[in-house]
Amino acid sequence: MNDENQTDEGARHEFVTARQLAAFLQVSETTVRRLARAGRIPAVRLTPRLVRFHLPTVLAALDGHVHKSGKRKLTTAPVLDDAQLSFDDVL
Q1: By CB neighbour count within 10 A (0-12 exposed, 13-18 middle, 19+ buried), where does 29 fall?
Q2: pTM given for the model
Q3: What is the pLDDT of residue 64?
């Protein structure tokens, strides 16, 4: 197997379904879809009903690193590795 195939396989695993993301975040699938609809987490819409989520980008968005515009936010405080959802995220 060459390096290109290994890279493709690794990249493929970074994109997850709403169900997989919900299990990873320990929230409901409805919450994941609501967050995506509100623009709180980035989503890739392949068809009107088929949506995938790029896991590293979603985690960065939940950590507060990415603005809705997609640009990285500069922070002076150290970023904690505690990416928990707040009540604002699920309402």
Answers
A1: middle
A2: 0.59
A3: 76
